[in-house]
Amino acid sequence: MAHFDLPLEQLRDYRPEVPEPADFDEFWKSTLTETAAHDLAARIEPYETDLVTVDVFDVSFAGFGGHPIKAWLVLPKGVEGPLPCVVEYIGYTGGRSYPWAHTGYPAAGWAHFVMDTRGQGHGNGNPGDTGDPYGTTGPTAKGWATQGLDAPEHYYYRRVFTDAHRAVDVVKGVDGIDPDRIVVAGGSQGGAMTQAVAGLRDDLAGAMVDVPFLSHVRRAVTITDAPVYGEIVQFLAGQRLREERVFQTLDYFDGVHFAARATVPALYSVGLMDADCPPSTVFAAYNRWQGEKRITVWPWNGHEGGGIHQRGEQLRFLAGLR
Fold it and tell me: Which of 41, 196, 226, 310 might form a disulfide with 62, Cβ 3.0–4.6 angstroms?
């Protein structure tokens, strides 16, 4: 993939007008209030592994609709608390995987909470354990990006973003974790969740957003047909008369609006050859972020972004928050 989007000097100042629903804040307030009626029902149980430098816990809690959501909690062994914690959200199709895949942050002295994504968990070699009992309310294309596009109340990511918000509530109630030092993190779909949670909360210590999905969606679907935006394009190609309704729904989930409400320190990353989440869509959200921020630009990379190099950037970012 060649450089196909705007030049970097334009990206750094790119602030498009993205339609925001007049009741955006009320929609999310009512969604979270509705879910708060369900007890968190958090269960945190020791999980046996052959790992000797961390303690692992198998977690379940009640997400949107009271539906059970799985997670891992991995704690560094022998480190005095209360511990700071990274709450991580997973990329599209992936699940929480296995606990031995999540030892990097604990090695740096951070607790690591890894949330499963409802209904997913077969991709990227990362199995999941969480279903989505809600189902769908209308026609869809393959995957999850088009489930419930008939109305924002029905859209799949209303449930997912609410699950992600509730995950932070769970972590804040765990003995030995500092509720004032919680950082949310994720890439691609996980980046979309990270932006949403950071925009919906005012009690986080930071956010790490890598190559986020669901930002400036109206532009994304016109300049790329790569997954996952290609699912939306495929849906609209068959559902020709639903365009206005589809975009009105997606506007409630656009990362640009969440970023405009986020005030915590943030570390972003972007790949300038990323056809899955085009650079202009990432910068559209990044440039609206209200808190202290910086972005790592990887000129010769696609959706993989900085990979292991970005993890080094993240560890330095976290060290600055200790």
Answer: 41
Which residue type does 238 have?
G
Q: What are the residue ranges of helices labelled H in the chain?
A: 8-11, 24-36, 104-107, 156-172, 189-200, 217-223, 229-238, 243-250, 255-259, 279-286, 307-319
Instruction: Using alpha carbons, select from 317, 254, 261 the residue that is nearest to residue 288.
Output: 261
Which tokens hold the place of 176?
């030995």
Cα 19 from chain centre:
21
Show which residues are catalytic: 188, 274, 303
> 142 falls in which pLDDT band (50, 70, 90)?
confident
Q: What is the DSSP letter of 132?
A: -
Q: Dihedral sign, CA of 197, 71, 281, 142? A: negative
Count the neighbouring beta carbons within 10 Å of the beta carbon of residue 240. Answer: 7
Mean pLDDT of the chain: 96
What is the residue whose two structure tokens read 């993890």?
311
Distance between CA atoms of residues 216 and 282, nearest Å: 8
Residue 78 — left, alpha, or beta (φ > 0 → left; ψ -120 to 50 → alpha)? Answer: left
* DSSP secondary structure code for residue 282 in this structure: H
Orientation angle between helical segments 156-172 and 189-200, nearest 10 degrees: 60
Site of tokens 């708060």: 36
Q: How far is residue 41's CA from residue 73's CA, in Å, rounded to a whole number?
A: 16
Residue 266 to residue 286: CA distance in whole angstroms: 9
- Per-residue pLDDT of 178-234, as tens digits, reads 999 999 999 999 999 999 999 999 999 999 999 999 999 999 999 998 989 999 999
